[in-house]
Specification:
about 500 residues, mainly beta, repeat, dynein heavy chain binding, Dynein 2 intermediate chain 2, WD40_repeat_dom_sf, Dynein_IC
C-alpha cells in the first residue's frame, strides 16, 4: 500500500530512561501504611493550604508527604544532544517521503452497512394505487418532496393526485402523515425544489401545465401556474428544473421538458400566471448526424423530449434524452431558429449541436458529472446505463443493469466515481468505478414484489442520505455507508482516465 521502503532501522538506547528506571525501582521498595479515606482527605487539604500534618500524630494517623521527584537534568541534556542529529536526519527523510500521498485520516467510525432510515408514504395516495413519480430535496437538505401520479399506461390527466412534503429533522416525524399535502386535479409527473429558496417547488403535470408552490403557505400554497394556451405544452411534462437567468445572475427561471418536443423557459406575470419567455424545440431535420451513427428519416417531425441535465461547468450546455432514444448535446446560447410548420408567438430555437449513440428505447434519465466537465450518464428502457464523454459519439461504457427499465440515474455529489440507478425490478443499485467497472457494488431491494423504482435523489447537504420513490407509493430514505460518502485517494485521476478512454 505504501512506498519508500527503508533498508535499516535506527535504534538509540536511552541512557537517561535506564538511569531513571533504576531510581524508580529503588523507590518502589519503600512501604507506607495504608491510610484511611479521612486521613487522605486531610493530607490533600494540607498540601492545598500549605500546612504540614501534626508532628505529634502517629504513623497511622498522619500520612508523610512524599519527597519531590529527582530529575537528572544533566543526564537528560546529554541524552538530547546525543540523539539530536540522527532524529533530525530521520525526520528530514520522512518529510521528503511520498508514501502517504493521498492518505486522509478518518477519525469517524466507518459505517459498513446501507440501512433504511425512513419509509415514507401517504395512505390516501396508496389507496388510489398512485405511484411516486418524482422526488426532490430542498436546499437545506431537511425537507423531502414527492409527487404522486401514474407512469404506466392509461389516461390519467383527470385523475386527482398529490404533492407531499416531510421535514425529516422534526422530532415528531410521522412517516405516514406528511407535513404538507396538496391536492392536484391532474397527475404530477415531476417536481424540483428551488436551488436557493427552500420553500419553492416547481412541478409538471400530465396535462402539460407547470405549477409553482410555496410550502410556507399552508392554506393556499399554489402561487404560479401556466394555464393552457397555444404556446404552452400540449403533452405531459416529464421534467422541470430551475436555471439561472443569464441576464439576471441572482434570479432563476423554471424550465419544463415535454414529449411535445419543446423545452420552455417561464417567467412570472401578474395574477399568478406563468408565460413562456423563450424556448427550444427538436425537429428531426435539425438534429446533427454524427459519423457511424444510424441515420433517421428526414422531415419536420418533432422529437419528444423526456429528460435533460445541465453541465456543472458550462451553464449554457445541457444533455437531452428523447422518446426515440436519441441523446444530444445542446446549448441555450444558440441562435438557430427551429423549422416548424406551425408558427409560435414566442421564439423557439433548435438547441441540438451534437448527437451520441442512441439507446434501444426512450431515455428516462440523464445526469452530468459534478466532478468532470465532459462526463455524463444516461439510462432508459433498454435497461442500460451509458457512461459518455461529450467529446465522442460512442459511450465509454455500456452497462446492462436491468433486464427491464432504468428509470433514473444520478451521480453522487461527493464521490466522483459513484452513481446510483433505479431499476424496473425494484432495486436501487450503487455503482463504484473504484471497485468495478462492470457490476454494482451494492444492490438494494426497495420493493418486495419487484415493483419499479421510478426516481432517486442524493441529499445535497446530508450526503449520506439517498431517497428513492417506487410504484408502490413509498419513498425510502437510505443511509449510505462511509464507502459511498468518503472520497478515496486518487479518485479524480481515475475519473480522468475514464474520460480519456477512446472508443471506436
Amino acid at each position: 500500500m505504501f512506498g519508500d521502503a527503508s533498508a535499516g532501522v535506527l535504534d538509540v538506547e536511552s541512557v537517561w530512561r535506564r538511569d531513571q528506571g533504576t531510581r524508580c525501582e529503588e523507590k518502589s521498595t519503600q512501604t507506607l501504611p495504608i491510610p484511611t479515606a479521612e486521613r487522605v482527605a486531610q493530607t490533600r487539604h494540607s498540601h492545598e493550604v500549605g500546612v504540614q500534618a501534626d508532628p505529634q500524630a502517629s504513623p497511622a494517623q498522619a500520612l508523610p508527604l512524599p519527597p519531590p521527584p529527582l530529575v537528572d537534568y544533566a543526564g537528560l541534556w546529554a541524552f538530547l544532544q546525543r540523539v539530536e542529529e540522527p532524529v533530525i536526519r530521520e525526520l528530514d527523510k520522512n518529510w521528503k517521503s511520498h508514501a502517504f500521498d493521498g492518505f486522509e485520516v478518518n477519525w469517524a467510525d466507518p459505517n459498513e452497512t446501507v440501512s433504511c432510515a425512513h419509509s415514507l408514504s401517504y395512505p390516501e395516495a396508496q389507496e388510489r394505487n398512485l405511484q411516486v413519480t418524482s422526488i426532490s430535496w430542498n436546499v437545506t437538505g431537511a425537507v423531502l418532496a414527492c409527487s404522486y401520479g401514474r407512469l404506466d399506461d392509461g389516461d390519467w390527466s383527470s385523475e386527482k393526485s398529490f404533492l407531499c412534503t416531510w421535514n425529516l429533522n422534526r422530532r415528531a416525524l410521522n412517516p405516514h402523515r406528511p407535513d404538507l399535502v396538496v391536492e392536484i386535479p391532474s397527475a404530477v409527473l415531476c417536481v424540483a425544489f428551488h436551488p436557493q429558496q427552500p420553500s419553492l417547488i416547481a412541478g409538471g403535470l400530465f396535462s402539460g401545465e407547470v405549477l409553482i408552490w410555496d410550502t410556507s403557505r399552508q392554506e393556499d400554497p399554489l402561487i404560479w401556474r401556466t394555464g393552457m394556451t397555444d404556446d404552452t405544452h400540449t403533452d405531459p411534462v416529464y421534467q422541470v428544473s430551475w436555471h439561472r437567468d443569464p441576464q439576471q445572475p441572482h434570479a432563476f427561471r423554471v424550465l419544463s421538458v415535454s414529449t411535445d418536443g419543446k423545452i420552455l423557459v417561464w417567467q412570472e406575470e401578474r395574477d399568478g400566471l406563468l408565460r413562456p419567455a423563450s424556448g427550444f424545440t427538436f425537429v428531426q431535420q435539425q438534429i446533427p448526424r454524427s459519423t457511424k451513427l444510424k441515420k433517421h428519416a428526414r422531415g419536420d417531425m418533432v422529437v419528444g423530449v423526456t429528460s435533460l441535465s445541465f453541465s456543472h461547468f458550462e451553464p449554457s450546455v445541457f444533455i437531452s434524452g428523447t422518446e426515440g432514444g436519441y441523446l444530444m448535446k445542446c446549448s441555450t446560447a444558440v441562435d438557430t431558429a427551429a423549422l416548424l410548420r406551425k408558427s409560435s408567438s414566442i421564439p423557439l430555437r433548435a438547441p441540438a449541436q451534437f448527437s451520441f449513440s442512441s439507446h434501444g428505447g426512450p431515455i428516462y434519465s440523464v445526469s452530468c458529472s459534478p466532478f468532470h466537465r465532459n462526463l455524463f450518464l444516461s439510462g432508459g428502457t433498454d435497461g442500460h446505463v451509458h457512461l459518455h464523454s461529450m467529446l465522442q459519439a460512442h459511450p465509454l461504457l455500456s452497462l446492462q443493469l436491468s433486464k427491464k427499465y432504468i428509470f433514473s440515474v444520478r451521480w453522487s455529489p461527493v464521490r466522483p466515481l459513484v452513481f446510483a440507478a433505479a431499476s424496473g425490478e425494484g432495486e436501487v443499485q450503487l455503482f463504484d468505478f473504484a471497485k468495478s467497472s462492470q457490476k454494482p457494488s451494492v444492490s438494494i431491494r426497495q420493493t418486495p414484489n419487484q415493483a419499479p423504482v421510478y426516481c432517486l435523489e442524493f441529499n445535497p447537504r446530508q450526503t449520506q442520505l439517498l431517497a428513492a420513490g417506487d410504484a408502490g407509493g413509498t419513498v425510502k430514505v437510505w443511509q449510505l455507508s462511509s464507502d459511498f460518502t468518503e472520497e478515496g485517494p486518487r479518485e479524480m485521476s481515475h475519473l480522468d482516465q475514464l474520460a480519456n478512454e477512446v472508443t471506436d
